[in-house]
From TrEMBL:
Gene Ontology molecular functions: kinase activity
Record keywords: ATP-binding, Kinase, Membrane, Nucleotide-binding, Phosphoprotein, Transferase, Transmembrane, Transmembrane helix, Two-component regulatory system
Segments crossing the lipid bilayer: 12-31, 43-61, 73-101, 107-130, 142-162, 174-194
Record-given protein name: histidine kinase
Enzyme Commission number: 2.7.13.3
Domain Histidine kinase: 251-478
Length: 494
């Protein structure tokens, strides 16, 4: 009978062999079968466990010619850590049992075969029970190690070829404690190995994901760079196109305005008929020529102004302007025009309105001129009014007030669904209005752009058949030290 040191040496060799096999298996797994399917990995582990059991028997303690003492049950104990199928556990038990028969077909070999096969069945049933109880990993493996070692001792004491008392007194005391100790040690080491391998695998997957994300980011960055270059090229083309358009319009307007002005002047002379050379009908023709020339000149000026604004080349000249003088000039011009159409025309400046406003007087006058011209154009009867007043705070900004120029008429009005695009170039509320009333549809577009450049805005309120109200809001800084009190809104303004 071998000594206790012989048992220890044999068990140590068994543990070392299995650790070596597990390390080699990890290398093979890492570099060869990492991407294999779960079924393939399980089959390979079954083969490895059976081979480890055979190696444990090969390096085990030879108690007699037919009796071997070793750690062959250890691969079966750790099987639940790697396989999930109950059938796989049974196959490992039967496979290690068959491996025992390779050392001879003595009675001890057959006892070992039956013992390992039954242990596989018992372990499969035990894992089913433990998983249904939802025990932790430590509790499950403790139960497995105790159950398998205890079953091994009981089975061999009853069916083994060694006398029962000799087996229990000489073999069990040194081997049972060692088997438990080495079992717990091997499971602990293997558990740490699995956790570390899992961490490495997770790290590799994270690195692979980061590499993919970096590659995608590089591709997107390249695409964005190309898109940026394309946009810059398109922007340059648009800038050049806008420049060409502006230059063309400027040159054409200069070339057209010279003969137009001559045509207007000479047609006006013909219309005056100072020497009474022409008949009334010929005078009327001269008036038509003059009127058409003035309309064409006005349209050319509008197109030129619009192109300059869109190209960002419109220069503003801010200065202190007298509100009363602007209103007086408008009243002088449009009062006469309204009288010719049989319309009433009225202007009113509220008492609270300051005397002066710092702005570009030319552009402000052009905006109001366009609004009043539209009001007169689309009003057949009734009146047109221009009211100047003060509005309250702008969007809650303390110390900022608005001067509001409200142009109201009793004309044809604008349908609600048409008001959204009346400020677009070459658009009118209805295509038929261009035929009935004339005009290019540029006046409101230019006025809104001028208003934005001056820091203001134009709003419209209208009802079809009942007139319209256009309000020009111009910001007016509050006097220094004055409280930002909310002022009453001008009647008719928004």
């Amino acid at each position: 009978m071998p000594s206790s040191s012989g048992f220890v040496s044999s068990f140590f060799v068994n543990i070392s062999l299995m650790l070596f096999l597990m390390y080699m298996a990890s290398l093979v797994y890492k570099y060869a079968i990492f991407r294999c399917s779960a079924r393939t990995k399980e089959v390979l582990f079954i083969a490895l466990a059976i081979f480890a059991g055979w190696g444990a028997m090969h390096y085990g303690v030879q108690l007699s010619e037919s009796v071997r003492l070793d750690m062959r049950i250890l691969p079966l104990i750790v099987a639940p850590m790697f396989v999930r199928s109950r059938l796989s556990i049974v196959m490992i038990g039967v496979g290690i049992g068959l491996a025992r028969l390779t050392f001879g077909l003595q009675a001890a070999a057959w006892v070992g075969f039956v013992n390992l096969s039954l242990m596989g069945v018992l372990l499969a049933a035990l894992m089913q029970l433990l998983e249904s109880k939802r025990f932790s990993f430590a509790k499950r493996m403790t139960a497995v190690i105790l159950a398998m070692n205890t079953w091994n001792v009981l089975f061999l004491s009853v069916f083994g070829v060694m006398p029962t008392m000799e087996y229990l007194s000489d073999v069990v005391p040194p081997t049972y404690a060692l088997s438990l100790s080495y079992g717990f040690l091997f499971v602990f080491v293997l558990r740490e190995f699995i956790v570390e391998a899992g961490r490495k695998e997770a790290l590799e997957q994270a690195n692979a994901k980061l590499r993919d994300q970096y590659r995608i980011a590089e591709e997107r960055s390249s695409e964005l760079a190309l898109a940026k270059l394309a946009l810059e090229d398109t922007n340059e083309q648009l800038r050049r196109s806008s420049q060409y358009k502006t230059d063309f319009l400027a040159n054409m307007s200069h070339e057209l305005r010279t003969p137009l002005n001559s045509m207007i002047v000479f047609s006006q002379l013909l219309e005056e008929n100072a020497e009474a050379r022409f008949s009334p009908e010929e005078v009327r023709y001269a008036g038509i020529i003059r009127s058409s020339g003035e309309q064409l000149l006005s349209m050319i000026n509008d197109v030129l102004d619009l192109s300059r604004v869109d190209a960002g080349r419109m220069e503003l000249e801010f200065d202190v302007q007298s509100i009363a003088e602007i209103v007086q000039q408008l009243e002088y011009v449009f009062g006469s025009l309204a009288g010719q159409k049989g319309l009433a025309f009225a202007t009113r400046v509220e008492d609270a309105v300051p005397e002066f406003l710092r702005t570009d007087g030319r552009r402000l006058y052009q905006i109001l001129q366009n609004l009043l011209a539209n009001a007169l154009k689309f009003t057949e009867s009734g009146e047109v009014r221009l009211t100047v007043g003060l509005a309250g705070l702008i969007h809650g900004q303390a110390g900022v007030r608005e001067v509001v120029f409200a142009v109201e008429d009793t004309g044809i009005g604008i349908a609600a669904d048409k008001q959204a695009y009346i400020f677009e170039a070459f658009r009118q509320a209805d295509g038929s209005t261009s035929r009935l009333y004339g005009g290019s549809g540029l006046g409101l577009a230019i006025s809104q752009r001028f208003a934005h450049m001056l820091g203001g805005r134009i709003e419209v309120a209208s009802e079809e058949g009942r007139g319209s109200r256009f309000t020009l809001h111009m910001p007016l800084p509050a006097p220094e030290g004055a409280a930002a009190a909310r002022l009453p809104v001008v009647p008719g303004s928004r």
